[in-house]
Amino acid sequence: MNGLIEKFTQDFIVDDRWKFITKGLGVTLEVTALALVFGVIIGLIIGIIRCAHDQQNANERRGVKGAILNFLNLICQLYVTVIRGTPALVQLLIMYFIILVSAQSKVMVAVVTFSINSGAYVAEIFRGGIMSIDKGQMEAGRSLGLNYVQTMTYTIIPQAMKACLPALANELITLLKETSICGYIGLNELTRGGDIIRGTTFDALLPLFCVAIIYLVIVMLLSYLMSLIERRLRKSDNR
After folding, report:
1. What's this model's pTM, rounded to 2 decimal places?
2. Which of 179, 180, 187, 185 is CA-nearest to residue 208?
3. CATH number among 1.10.3720.10, 2.40.50.320, 3.40.50.2020, 1.10.10.10, domain 2-238
C-alpha cells in the first residue's frame, strides 16, 4: 500500500504532474467538441446532396440542375470513399506535414482533420436516416407549397435526426477516442499527457490506467446522456 502511495505521489503530485492530465483532458474535449460540430455540418450537407441525387426522377437528371447535382454527388462520393478508406492517423499526418504545414495551432490542425474525417461517417449516417423516412413525407410537404429545402428542414431532417441519434452517439464516442492519436503531431492531449508522465517517472501503471479510466468515465457519461435523450424522444412520440 505504501508503495502504491509513493508511486501516486511520484506520478501525479511531484512537480504538479497531474496538470499534464488535466490540461490534456481539456485539449481532448476541445478537439472532440469542435470536430463534432463541424463534422455534423459537413455530414449533413453531404448527406442531403446524396439523398437529393438518389431521389431524382429520370426527367430531373437530364436537366441542368440534374447535371450539377450529379457532379456534386460524384464529389461527395469521392470524398466519402477516400476518407473512409484511409486511416485517421495518416490523414492527421498528411494534414500536419503537408496541407497545413504552415499552421501555427496544432489544435486547429486536429480539429480540421477530425472534422473532415467525422464528416464522411456522419454523411452516411444522415443519408441512411433521411432515406428511411417515407417518401410520402416529402410529397406531403411539397403539396403544401414548401420547396425542397423547406421540406427537408421542417419535415424530413427532424424525423431523420431521431433515427440517426444512436449512430451519432456512437460516432461521438469514436471521435473522442480517436483524438488519442494527436500525440503524433505533438499535441498534448489526454493520452500524451499520461505518456509524458510515464516517460518522466518510468512508471507506466498509474498514468496509463488513469488515462484509461478518464476515457471510460467520459464514454459512460455520454452513453447515459444519450439514453436520456432517446427516452425523452420516445415519450414525445407516444404523446
Report:
1. 0.89
2. 180
3. 1.10.3720.10
